[in-house]
């Protein structure tokens, strides 16, 4: 899965204009939060924790228009808790964004 950084870059540009330092800080804040949620998914030991972490990841991703991450969060919610393929895909997209 390839990540199109267009939506995030447009959001950052609209919010901060030509301030690359501020845009970089916000990108880092997003990826740090997404990594925290991916870690919550990895550590989830029950369906409710898995679903809550996936829903929070979906909401965070929707704020910035990150469609691949939204779709993966939805896939996580629809699938089995602890699905290693979904976790790898989520981490891969986050790595591409960072």
List its traits.
98 residues, mainly alpha, Four Helix Bundle (Hemerythrin (Met), subunit A), 5 helices, 0% strand
Description:
- The chain has 98 residues and is mostly helical.
- It has one domain (6-97): Up-down Bundle (Four Helix Bundle (Hemerythrin (Met), subunit A)), CATH 1.20.120.
- The mean pLDDT is 87.
- The longest helix has 24 residues, at 20-43.
- Helix 1 packs across helix 2 (20-43), helix 2 runs antiparallel to helix 5 (84-97) and helix 4 (67-78) runs antiparallel to helix 5 (84-97).
- It is 81% helix and 0% strand.
- It contains five helices and no strands.
- It has helices at residues 6-16, 20-43, 47-64, 67-78, 84-97.
- The two termini are 15 Å apart.
Overview in brief:
With 98 residues, this protein is an all-alpha fold. It is 81% helix and 0% strand. It is elongated and about 45 Å long.
| CATH fold name | Four Helix Bundle (Hemerythrin (Met), subunit A)
Question: How many individual helices?
Answer: 5
**Between the first and last Cα atoms, what is the distance in angstroms?**
15 Å
- The shape, in one word, is elongated
Please state the average pLDDT score.
87
Structural class of the helix and strand makeup? mainly alpha
Secondary-structure element order, N to C: HHHHH
The tally of strands reads 0
Low-confidence stretches: none
CATH class category: Mainly Alpha
Residue share in β-strands: under 5%
Radius of gyration (CA) equals 14 Å
**Overall number of domains:** 1
Classify the helix fraction into a percent range: over 70%
The CATH architecture term is Up-down Bundle
Largest sheet: none
């Amino acid at each position: 899965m390839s990540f199109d950084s267009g939506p995030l870059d447009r959001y950052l540009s609209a919010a901060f204009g030509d301030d690359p330092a501020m845009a970089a800080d916000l990108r880092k804040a997003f990826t740090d939060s997404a990594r925290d949620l991916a870690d919550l998914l990895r550590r989830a030991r029950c369906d409710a924790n898995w679903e809550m972490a996936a829903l929070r990841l979906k909401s965070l991703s929707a704020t910035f228009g990150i469609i691949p991450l939204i779709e993966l969060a939805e896939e996580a919610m629809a699938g089995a808790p602890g699905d290693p393929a979904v976790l790898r895909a989520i981490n891969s997209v986050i790595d591409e964004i960072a």
